[in-house]
Each structure stands twice: as structure tokens, then as C-alpha cells.
Structure to design on (195 residues):
């Protein structure tokens, strides 16, 4: 019975640890490019978007959730070589934008050639929502990749995900302890001999 209790306790502890820190159990390396949330199709070609804030975290790169407001480097990698042979530009607009005419333009990088395959811009982002649109002169409006950025805003789904796992683990652990305390075996083990 002692082995059962130790095994159950160890399993519960591993479950709580895995639910508390899902990043430790999920590997990112070697992921397929089509599954990368920062990749988008620009027509038939792939682009990859990254945002950097080296003044806060030197090596961290972000895609859609930017943790702090401030100066931000926006980088678009033109993955396919076809895009390097045509003018490509980028527009950043404040707010969730569905058409070209809505919202306030924060930065507008006019389309030009990028033989190195990298489109860069630096912009100051305040707290709020932004839309980044990447376009070439040969693409129609429906095929332009868009990224919706959230800058220093609370992501309630992430908060729920980070608290539900540990809460379930604690409740499960409490239930096991309750069942253990209520068991006849434990009461018999703690009872004085001869009673």
C-alpha cells in the first residue's frame, strides 16, 4: 500500500508540474514552417514576421503578442526568393483594420526591392491593437498577409490557461489526500495497537 501511495503522489506531482509549466513539456524546435503562427502566405510565397524590443529583452522575438510598449523593430523575412525580385512594402495601422482606409497609419514602408530578403522598420508602439499588412505591387488586396498585434494588453485566454492547469492539479491532489485520510487502511495504521 505504501508503494501505491508513493506512486500516486509522484504521479500527481508530475501532473501538477506539467500543467503548471506547459512550456517545459512542449517542444518548439523542428516545427513545420506551415504550423508557425508567424508565417503567412503572400500569394503563393511565404513571409515570416518578427518583432523585437532589445531594450527590454535582447534575444526575444514576438509575433502577435508584444509584452511592452515602446520602440519596436519589425522584421519581415521574405522566405521565397520570388518576393525578393519584386517591390514589397509594409503598413502598420493602429486598431484592428479590415480595409485599407480604416485606422491611423503608424508607419508606411513603401514597396521596394529587398535583395537580401529582409524588410525592416522601426516604430514606436503604444498600448493597444495594431494591424501589420505586407504587400507587393503585384498582389491583390485579398492575398495580402496581415498580422494582428496586441501590445501590452491582457490576454485573458493565456491567464485562464496558466491558472486552470495548476488549479486542477491542486484539486486533484486535495481529492487524493481526502480519500487517503478517509481510508480504513490509514485509520487502522494510525490507531494505537489493541484498540
Amino acid at each position: 500500500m505504501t508503494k501505491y501511495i508513493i506512486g500516486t503522489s509522484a504521479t500527481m506531482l508530475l501532473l501538477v508540474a506539467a500543467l503548471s509549466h506547459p512550456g517545459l513539456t512542449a517542444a518548439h524546435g523542428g516545427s513545420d514552417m506551415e504550423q508557425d503562427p508567424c508565417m503567412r502566405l503572400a500569394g503563393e510565397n511565404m513571409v515570416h514576421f518578427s518583432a523585437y524590443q532589445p531594450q527590454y529583452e535582447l534575444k526575444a522575438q514576438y509575433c502577435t503578442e508584444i509584452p511592452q510598449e515602446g520602440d519596436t523593430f519589425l522584421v519581415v523575412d521574405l522566405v521565397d526568393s520570388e518576393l525578393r525580385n519584386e517591390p514589397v512594402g509594409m503598413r502598420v495601422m493602429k486598431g484592428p483594420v479590415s480595409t485599407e482606409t480604416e485606422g491611423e497609419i503608424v508607419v508606411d514602408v513603401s514597396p521596394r526591392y529587398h535583395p537580401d530578403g529582409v524588410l525592416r522598420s522601426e516604430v514606436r508602439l503604444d498600448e493597444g491593437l495594431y494591424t501589420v499588412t505586407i504587400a507587393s505591387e503585384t498582389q491583390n488586396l485579398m492575398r495580402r498577409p496581415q498580422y494582428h498585434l496586441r501590445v501590452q494588453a491582457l490576454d485573458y485566454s493565456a491567464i485562464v490557461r496558466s491558472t486552470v492547469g495548476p488549479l486542477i492539479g491542486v484539486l486533484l491532489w486535495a481529492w487524493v489526500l481526502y480519500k487517503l485520510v478517509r481510508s480504513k487502511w490509514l485509520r487502522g495504521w494510525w490507531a494505537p495497537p489493541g484498540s
